[in-house]
Design a protein that fits this description.
- The complex is a heterodimer of chains A (379) and B (265).
- In chain A, 53% of the residues lie in helices and 15% in strands.
- Chain A has 379 residues and is α+β, with helices and mostly antiparallel strands.
- In chain A, the strands form three sheets. Chain A has a four-stranded mixed β-sheet. A four-stranded antiparallel β-sheet of chain A has the order 2-3-7-6, with helices on one face. A two-stranded antiparallel sheet of chain A has the order 9-10.
- In chain A, helix 7 packs parallel to helix 9 and helix 7 packs antiparallel against helix 10.
- Chain A is globular and about 80 Å long.
- In chain B, strands 1, 4, 5, 6, 7, 8, 9, 10, 11 and 12 form a ten-stranded mixed β-sheet that branches. In chain B, strands 2-3 form a two-stranded antiparallel ribbon.
- In chain B, strand 4, helix 2 and strand 5 form a beta-alpha-beta unit.
- In chain B, helix 2 packs across helix 6 and helix 3 crosses helix 4.
- The relative contact order of chain B is 0.18.
- The chains are: A alpha+beta (379), B alpha/beta (265).
Chain lengths: 379, 265
């Protein structure tokens, strides 16, 4: 693996960094405070190709490598993790279609996203099925050319504003994993409704709602793969998205470290800047080394995907290590700021709240360890 | 309408610049580089004009292979072709203008837009030399009547206005106490000031497309230009460090000091 970025990768990084600095960050505190979904910023990111960056060229996308996506993801999250989560939610919802869709389905459900600003949501989690995906209760019953779907989905990013949903449901609850299927829901069919926007601890700029489905009729032609393929599709999607989620943690942590360094240099105690105190120096050194390690781990997990190799184990290392790292680094950044860090007048407490979610969504840090152990102990 | 723009590689204005031990150059280790901000404004203006008056936008840069980065940036923004003048070693403003003159004579653009100066040497001379040697009209420090927050700017309306039939170009310049509007017969040379436009971002699709756009190589020798500098830098020095301020105990002392020491009230 070559650790130097290519000219293209640096150019992509420059654009993402500029967008994060000039467009996202100035609005981050306001959107956090008000729990506002910044539609115009997300739309602007679409115009620059920062949205839907996983769409391949043959479907009108940019065709970025997984590594390049990682480089962009770090910058977006540095700008605002909540906004970045809303941006990447599109990719998360489109990935199952890349993975399991037919050519016709890709044309119908993916290409329009490159042509027009649209949002889509990934619906896997339920009120009673979080880490236990196979415990899902949303049921699809076949009725001629349609499925009739009933159930509820929880913590659905962009759910209130989405134009399309990639939904996971079961055709037979007793079959657990083997009963799950993935299906695409377009627009707002009859019986489909969204709940109120969740009042979250962090990443408050991203929209998060419940979805309720009451006798929602969806054409069988919208099903991805076969009945029973859903669990595999969901897991493969997460293999693809974990490097990006890990990079979100890197972006948040880098932002926290930069704030901590700036503050430590100007905050004077005991007659000198606190940056001259070894206790603070060690915290900053630990931040930098852990951020660097997480970044390299994430890049490697992306590189494996670019090589067409399975990355389940390494991407779990990356996501788990990076999320736990970001929690530690942002907590230490608040510590460097002391009392000021605990105040909303300063930017680091937001980062600490934002980081917490990364340990939870797309597989908790505990589930990542379960995945690692399973990979390590199998055979 | 064909437009030629420049894309000089300069030190990133956000980097910390230090003078080297010999005092004749700067320490280059760890420095970041980018396109000269005034040139980026020139590229943006050219792209806006090209959207109204279709034609090629050719970006030119002079330097070692590293200037490909700046050329690619211009291509990613939307320029159609890049010309790289492969040159290592020092160049003065006349050398640069001579090289550009040859490229202009080859490319035959209707309009040349360049930054009014580059932020490294701050000479503000190349556009003027170039126009003079080409025998073309020139308008320096092109600016805009609208502010950069205006609707026109949001809609990417060019500040430089090309007349019907692309025979003339109108340029607005900010002068003391008002605006000065010049009309030039094309072909002409325009140099850009800061308040002409806000350059677009290089989009991700733009960056990927830039890879397949043409990048032509030229050399000073091939162009038949003698670029031996007539001007050499003899000394560079950092501005003196600012002295630390003082704290005054009360307003009365402040007023006294402002009167007796600073002599401003």
């Amino acid at each position: 693996m070559d650790f130097r970025l290519s000219d293209d990768e640096r150019a992509l990084q420059d654009t993402a960094r500029k967008f994060a600095r000039e467009v996202m960050r100035p609005k981050a505190a306001h959107c956090d405070e008000q729990s506002l979904f910044p539609r115009e910023i997300i739309q602007q990111s679409h115009e620059l190709g920062l949205l839907n960056m996983t769409i391949p060229q043959e479907l009108g996308g940019v065709g970025l490598s997984h590594l390049a996506q990682c480089i962009v993801a770090e910058e977006l999250s540095w700008g605002c993790a909540g906004m970045a989560t809303s941006m990447i939610a599109n990719d998360l919802a489109l990935l199952p279609i890349h993975i399991a869709g037919t050519k016709e389905q890709k044309e119908r459900f993916v290409r329009p996203f490159t042509e027009k600003f649209k949002l889509c949501s990934f619906g896997l989690t339920e009120p009673g099925a979080g880490s236990d995906v196979a415990g899902m209760q949303t049921v699809a019953r076949r009725d001629g050319d349609h499925y009739v779907i009933n159930g509820q989905k929880q913590w659905i990013t962009n759910g209130e504003f989405a134009d399309q949903y990639t939904l996971f449901c079961t055709t037979d609850r007793t079959k657990r994993h083997k009963g799950i299927m993935a299906i695409v829901i377009e627009g707002r069919p009859k019986g489909f409704s969204t709940g109120k926007h969740e009042n979250k601890m962090g990443q408050r700029a991203s929209n998060t709602v419940t979805l309720t489905l009451e006798d929602v009729r969806v054409p069988v032609a919208n099903r991805l793969g076969e009945e029973g393929d859903g669990f595999r599709i969901a897991m493969e999607t997460l293999d693809n998205s974990r490097p990006l989620t890990a990079m979100f943690a890197v972006g948040v942590a880098r932002a926290a470290m930069e704030h901590a360094i700036d503050y430590a240099k100007q905050r004077v105690q005991f007659g000198k800047p606190i940056a001259e105190l070894q206790a603070v120096q060690f915290m900053i050194a630990d931040m930098a080394k852990d951020i660097h390690a997480a970044r390299l781990l994430s890049w490697q997990s992306a590189q494996l995907l670019d090589d067409g190799a399975k990355n389940t184990l390494v991407s779990s290392y990356a996501k788990c290590f990076a999320a736990d790292m970001a929690m530690r680094v942002t907590t230490d950044a608040v510590q460097v700021f002391g009392g000021y860090g605990y105040s909303k007048e300063y930017p680091v407490e937001k980062l600490m709240r934002d980081a917490k979610l990364i340990q939870i969504y797309e597989g908790t840090s505990q589930v990542q360890r379960v995945v690692m152990a399973r990979e390590l102990l199998k055979g | 309408m064909k437009i030629l723009v420049t894309a000089k590689r300069v030190e990133d204005p956000e980097s910390k610049i230090k003078v080297d031990a010999a005092g004749k150059g700067i320490v280059k280790d760890g420095l970041k580089y980018k396109i000269n901000p005034f040139d980026e404004i020139a590229v943006e203006e050219a792209l806006r004009l090209a959207a109204k008056h279709p034609g090629d936008v050719v970006a030119v840069s002079i330097g070692g292979k590293e200037v490909h980065e700046q050329l690619r940036h211009a291509l990613a923004m939307g320029a159609t072709k890049a010309v790289w003048v492969n040159h290592e070693g020092p160049l003065d403003q006349m050398g640069v203008a001579r090289l550009l003159q040859k490229i202009v004579e080859k490319e035959k653009p209707d309009l040349v837009i360049l930054g009014k100066q580059s932020i490294d040497d701050d000479q503000n001379q190349v556009g003027q030399y170039l126009a003079e040697w080409l025998g073309w009209g020139q308008a320096t420090f092109a600016s805009k009547a609208d502010s950069l927050d205006s609707e026109n700017e949001k809609n990417k309306v060019p500040g430089v206005i090309v007349g019907d039939g692309a025979k003339t170009v109108d340029v607005i310049r900010e002068v003391d106490g008002g605006l000065n509007r010049l009309r030039l017969t094309l072909p002409a040379v325009v140099t850009t000031d800061l308040r002409l436009n806000q350059p677009r971002y290089a989009s991700l699709p733009g960056i990927m497309k830039a890879k397949s756009k043409p990048l032509e190589e030229q050399t000073a020798q091939g162009l038949g230009v003698d670029v031996a500098p007539k001007i050499t830098v003899t000394k560079l020095s950092m501005p003196p460090a600012r002295k630390a301020g003082i704290k005054v105990p009360d307003v009365a002392t402040l007023v006294t000091k402002l009167k007796t020491e600073a002599k401003v009230v």
